[in-house]
């Protein structure tokens, strides 16, 4: 359940590996997949989204009984711990990162984003800056009621590292494929 700052952390790490990338376009592009826009009451989004999650809550005594009979799905996990509580762990890790990295693309490229071209046909026009104004906020450092039940600090760090490595590798592979195609022509 990566939040926007997590996307920025991955972007920062990819840019450190691949400094030739267009910093602004790459940073904004990392948010584009999450720029589905909500309807008036936020009950649905355009385009729609599907999310699954595994149930670690059974390992926490205070949640074990509540988890009985529930499937290991995101919908059932949401019944156990509110979104505000679940996000406190993510926000805590993200805020620690931002405090230690004032040069993050979160501050340099995204926080004050006013315009960006509509490259993705699936998104409504202007979706990226519009969603940015809704979503870009400085996360708080507040412990949740069930700290790191959905994931551990180490798992989240590993997730961010894997995401950066996979993204960097995919970008390099795409670059090589394009260069090879251009050489053939």
Explain the overall architecture:
It contains eight helices and two strands. The protein has 185 residues and is an all-alpha fold. The chain has one domain (4-184). The protein has a two-stranded antiparallel ribbon with strand order 1-2. The radius of gyration is 18 Å and the shape is globular. It starts with a helix and ends with a helix. The model is unreliable at 49-55 (pLDDT under 50).
Give the topology.
Layout: H1 4-17, H2 23-31, E1 37-38, E2 45-46, H3 61-67, H4 74-80, H5 83-100, H6 105-110, H7 127-135, H8 153-184
Antiparallel strand pairs: 1-2
What's this, in brief?
This protein is mostly helical and 185 residues long. It has helices at 4-17, 23-31, 61-67, 74-80, 83-100, 105-110, 127-135, 153-184; strands at residues 37-38, 45-46. It has one domain (4-184).
Distance between the termini: 43 Å
Characterize the overall form: globular
* Main sheet: strand order: 1-2
Share of helical residues: 55-70%
Q: Main attributes?
A:
two-stranded antiparallel ribbon, 8 helices, single chain
């Amino acid at each position: 359940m990566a939040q926007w700052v997590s996307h920025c952390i991955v972007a920062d790490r990819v840019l450190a590996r691949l400094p030739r990338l267009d910093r602004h376009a790459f940073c904004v592009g990392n948010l584009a997949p999450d720029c589905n826009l909500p309807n008036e009451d936020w009950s649905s989004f355009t385009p729609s989204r599907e999310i699954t999650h595994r149930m670690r809550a059974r390992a926490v005594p205070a949640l074990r009984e509540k988890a009985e009979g529930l499937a290991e799905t995101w919908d059932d996990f949401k019944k156990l711990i509110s979104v505000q509580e679940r996000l406190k762990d993510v926000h805590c890790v993200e805020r620690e990162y931002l405090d230690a990295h004032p040069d993050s693309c979160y501050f340099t490229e995204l926080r004050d984003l006013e315009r960006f071209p509509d490259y993705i046909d699936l998104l409504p026009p202007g979706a990226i800056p519009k969603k940015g104004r809704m979503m870009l906020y400085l996360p708080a450092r507040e412990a949740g009621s069930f700290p790191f039940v959905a994931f551990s600090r180490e798992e989240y760090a590993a997730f961010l590292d894997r995401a950066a490595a996979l993204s960097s590798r995919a970008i390099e592979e795409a670059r090589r494929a394009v260069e090879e195609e251009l050489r053939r022509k």
